[in-house]
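Hello,

Following up on my earlier ticket. Below are the two sequence lines again, exactly as submitted.
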Amino acid sequence: MREPLDWENQALTGRHRMPARAYFFGYATPELAAGRDRTASRGFVDLTGEWRFRLFDHPTRVPASFEATEQEWDTVVVPHLWQLDGHGSLQYTDEGYPFPIEPPHVPADTPTGAYQRTVRLSTPAPGEQVVLRLDGVESYAEIFLNGAFVGMTKGSRLAAEFDVTAHVVDGDNLFAIKVLQFSDATYIEDQDMWWASGIFRALYLVTRPAARLTDFHVRTHRVGDDAEVTLTAAATGATELAWSITDGGVVVAETRLAPGATATVTVPAARFWNPEDPHLYDMLITVVGPDGASEYVPHRLGLAEVTVEDGRLLLNGAYFMMHGVNRHDHDDRRGRAVGLDRVRRDLELMKRHNINAVRTAHYPNDPRFYELCDEIGLMVLAETDLESHGFANVGDLSRITDDPAWEAAYVDRIERHVLAQRNHASIVMWSLGNESGYGCNIRAMYRRAKELDPHRPVHYEEDRNAEVVDVISTMYSRVSQMNDFGEHPHPKPRIICEYGHAMGNGPGGLSEYQAVFDRWDSIQGHFVWEWADHGLLARTDEGREFHRYGGDYGDYPNNANFCIDGLVFPWQAPSPGLIEYGQVICPVRVTYAGGVVRVTNRRWFTDLSDIELRVDTWADGVLTRTDVLQVGAVAPGETAEFPYDLPVVGASEAAAIATVVTNRAASWCEPGHELGRYQLAVRPSTDAGPFPLAELCPSPLAEVLAAGEPRNLGSATLHAYPDQHRLHVDTATGRLTFDTLTADLLSWTADGRELVASPLRVGFWKPLVDNHQQEADDLWFPRHLQLMQTSIRDVAWREDGGDAVVTYRARIAPPVFDFGCHVDVEWRIAPDGAATLRAAGSPYGDYRDIVPRIGVTLEVPGDLRRVAWFGRGPGENYPDSAAANPIGFWSSDVDAMVTPYVVPQDYGNRGDVRWVELTDGSGQGLRVSRRPGERPFHFSAWPYTCEDIDAARHVTDLTPRDTVTVNLNDQVLGLGSNSWGSEVLDSYRTRFESFSFEFTLQPLKGN
Amino acid sequence: MRIFDSHSALRDLLGAEKRWSRTREALAAAPSLTEGVTYSIGDSLTYRTGSAADLAARELTGRRRYLMVVASMAGEVAVEVARQEDLAAVAPYSDLTDRQPFTGPAERVLIPDGGLLIVDIDEAARILPTPDARAVLLHVTVEGASFHNK
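Thanks for your patience. The regenerated structure is below:
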């Protein structure tokens, strides 16, 4: 029987790879150790940078000479993914394997990259050890040095180290690394991301002294206010280890221990690590050999202990909840070959949006990621590199997860992960992987994790009933399901490891989720899917930038834009979804009632002495007062009250907004950073009585056509002029012209300028958002709701109380079917030039399910780009995604209001609007409002049409028009997150049912 | 309201729709799970086992997005059911719970030993504290064959 190939043998996880260990560096002096610059560690040789490279279409096509002889190949800069450097082809699938399923076999002609680099080195001194470390290679790598086989590794996102001491020579050394894109390991590395490969993380050499630390494990146990810290340290060639813990240069604990021994010290009155106060002590291990100190190993020590008591997770004895996100490594230029600056900015953005936890979905990160999380204060759900999701496509998700033949491969992944990261305070629990079914190998992984780190909880979502894991978990459970869990809790703590699928515009419904999470203390973590869009930067021939997704490289099968599902755009800017999430989890809650501002501390560990409230009050659009309230040391969970009178006496419209700011600098923010905003009060314009829809009883059309002379309608300033198929209505401010066949408002001139560019029409469709794709596929497209046709009948006009009234009946219905809506519409033009549109719709036929909106759309001339409104803002908001945008007086312009979703879709909605004005540079334009007492409305204003946006697949498909599309909506369907998750909640569903609404449009004179 | 004499009748009458196949999966798993704890299968359903007394409710409850399904594990389970339009709402519907409490006259029905009741989405219902009966209370999505269930 033929020996299996190394890359098709799941029982073989590596060759000559060193045992996994903690990530640390040894320095020659304490001063260098204090700097913690790994490039200054002993014998550090950075191997990133230029490598010779060639891509082969078969592993065996790589010439044998490659191992020992320099080749004349292309040059690439490592770390990289070769597909992003123009070698090979990219493909995106969510979970489908890009080749036939036949584990452990992969395509015989798997793409193979061959790398070479020549490095000048010196032979190590006797006893020293030269270690080659690779932090990430996908998916299989063979390493050669000067023609000798060094070793082999699998586990793309697990560090691999090789002892190359025996192969190093004085002078030039040829490193050769053969990388296969696919291997047996690919079957358990089927994460939702681009199929791409290469040496994508750092690689380097270190030279370890003869007396050297080989591993250490430090853990904390809280005893009252003190911390018992226990160190187990392994070393070779050493006689003794000295261990100290300092804080601000002051030694707080120290001891000595023998190599291989365990010692415990006490840090009195310890300052424990938590995400709100991520205090780190400086720990130093001095390795003493026969000739004295041989190296100094620093470690940033956070004193953190996670326990489970009575079914609750505790950090240092305190209850907490993780407000989290799922983060993939992604850079829109480099894919998963992310630089540390990008990683740091990701983490800072999280902190700036009140996120306190991150799940490393679905693999370990660069080891420096965990250091950053320790420093910045983010709890980590530390997942290892495991996903076999593709077996779901053959109805057998657990096929290899429950196959003992794969146990070694599975266990290897948790073992290397735990050993590498277990000293980090930020890691609150381990995760065995993602979406791989359940079976014997999960149980084996759990056992190994507990052997290596008995104290930290272990998570794995597909141990659905928490047979073995310490934390029960689900993904995409709906709001009410989470409430069911809370009402009747499992004995183990619960998290939801994925929810709020942030694909395109959305997610909606986060506030309701949070209300349930906050209600039940058994729910201790929630992680939005996901952090960032995986779009890859591209340019058109004209140089315009856009981002590509699945299928854009000719890849098939693909999951299209399912990878464009983040809270952060590919260019690392927050999307409206992130801003909403930041508000929903704001650590300070503010309410106002009865002349009292109530401030609640929603943190878990620290008080609010760093928090100020800025209260801004506007009256009739003018900022009339700003007050700053010092919140003081309000303890976690406590509420403080501040008497406060809102100064809005005499105003007809007013709004008060409290902004929560921090007055303390952190590594991720400056003083003055805003944590959230709350509406304290709103006073819409004085309520009026009910405003019933006028009886829509059109005059006979013949009467209209017969009238040929101007008719004074009882007002000195209002005249109507029928003219063929036109009706002109002159008012005090201008002229409106209607088509008497279609009832279209063809023109509206006021003070010498045109105000409309296309007629106003009632409609139910708006550009499709990703989170409504399922509704579109199942409800709307099969019924052609996107193709509804409007047919106008019974157009008439009359005078009524000095107003001109134009009425018509519209039938709005899709082709093919026999359902639709009859809409009676009335335009009432007043002598002062205000035109009020009233519409009353009555659906007919059998469709009563949801529709995207109910409202009207018109186009206005393109210079009416300045927008001011009294409603929710300043950002876009939707009925179920409105927490971040309080009601106030806001202004912007049509271009600044564009949200550049990677896949164009509906955007820019502003809800709870009392009025909106669109004006030109002189202030001339149009004002839209509703009568006092009427419910508020929604608007959006685009430089595109609905059809433009629906047709576009990338932002570069959109070209701004010379008109502005204005949508005035009575109802807008909530967003939900049903691109993969929760449907729109019942309260935010816009149904195809009877409706009536009105808008008043008025010309604005300008400056 | 639909009553089935046996759990297996679910397959015969409602086919292989994912939510109903998951219902059968839940019913198969239920006897081995901890009583009084809510478990789930994806976003298709949550379920909880207990005595009829434990599962009994004081109020008739209407739901909009997840159907109430009651499966007898032992003994006859009594349930009150009524159309929501024939009842008076006691409080508004809540998205957080997918529940709306109702009051008013309701029909008392018996789920046979080993049988199953599906409360339609325009109805409200409550389990009565039937002595010696044990049941599984499920909340099964209204989403049918076309929508994905995760």
